[in-house]
Design goal:
Helices cover about 35% and strands about 25% of the residues. By secondary structure, it is α/β, with parallel strands linked by helices.
Length: about 190
C-alpha cells in the first residue's frame, strides 16, 4: 500500500464517534503495549481527534503521534484536536505496522495496538483484552498474527463440522458391517 503525506492542517474538526479504546490499568506493571485502539476507518484525520481527546484527559496533552503508513492511505502532518495541534509522523521500517505511538512532553510515551477497522467485534474484543494484560510481552504484530492463526483454526474447524453434517463422514452406525448369512435373520429378531 502506498501512503500519501498530507501537509495541511485539518482546521475543521469533523465530529467523530467516541473512540473504541481499551487501556491497561493505571499503575500496573508495564508491558510492550499500553492498550488497544479500534478505529472505525483508515482516515487518521477523522479518527485521531476522538482518540487524542480521550487520552489527553487520561495521560496529559498528547503532542505527537507516529504510525507506520502501511495501513493508512493518507498520513496528515498535523491534526487539530480540542484546542491544540497534534503532529503526526510516520516510520515505515522502524515501527510495527499494527502499532500507534503517542507522545506527550509532560507525561511520556504510550504504545497502542491498532486493530484494523474491518475486524469483527469478537476478534476485536479478544485483541483488546490481550493488549491490556499488565506486563504483557506480546508485540502488536504478534497479537495480530496469533488472532489470524486462531481465526484460521476456527474456520477450519467450522468447515470440518459442516463437511461432517453434510454427509462427508459416515456416522458410527453406518460404519459397522452388516451381518450376512443364516445367522443374520436370527439376530434381527
Amino acid at each position: 500500500m502506498t501512503a500519501t503525506i498530507d501537509g495541511t492542517t485539518i482546521s475543521e474538526r469533523v465530529t467523530s464517534p467516541p473512540a473504541r479504546l481499551s487501556l491497561t490499568p493505571m499503575g500496573s506493571v508495564p508491558g510492550l503495549l499500553d492498550g488497544a485502539w479500534w478505529p472505525r476507518s483508515r482516515d487518521l484525520s477523522r479518527e485521531l481527534p476522538a482518540l487524542v481527546a480521550v487520552l489527553d484527559a487520561c495521560w496529559g496533552r498528547i503532542t505527537r503521534v507516529t504510525v507506520n503508513p502501511s495501513h493508512w492511505p493518507v498520513v496528515p502532518r498535523k491534526v487539530a484536536v480540542a484546542g491544540h495541534t497534534v503532529h503526526v509522523g510516520w516510520f515505515s521500517d522502524e515501527q510495527d505496522p499494527h502499532k500507534l505511538i503517542l507522545l506527550s512532553y509532560t507525561a511520556g510515551r504510550w504504545d497502542l495496538l491498532v486493530i484494523p477497522p474491518e475486524t469483527g467485534a469478537a476478534a476485536a474484543a479478544r485483541l483488546m483484552a490481550a493488549a491490556t494484560i499488565p506486563g504483557g510481552l506480546a508485540a502488536a504484530s504478534g497479537l495480530m498474527a496469533s488472532e489470524d492463526v486462531a481465526r484460521d483454526a476456527r474456520d477450519a474447524l467450522g468447515q470440518e463440522e459442516e463437511w461432517e453434517t453434510d454427509g462427508g463422514r459416515p456416522s458410527a452406525a453406518a460404519e459397522q458391517p452388516v451381518p450376512t448369512g443364516p445367522m443374520s435373520s436370527a439376530r434381527g429378531r
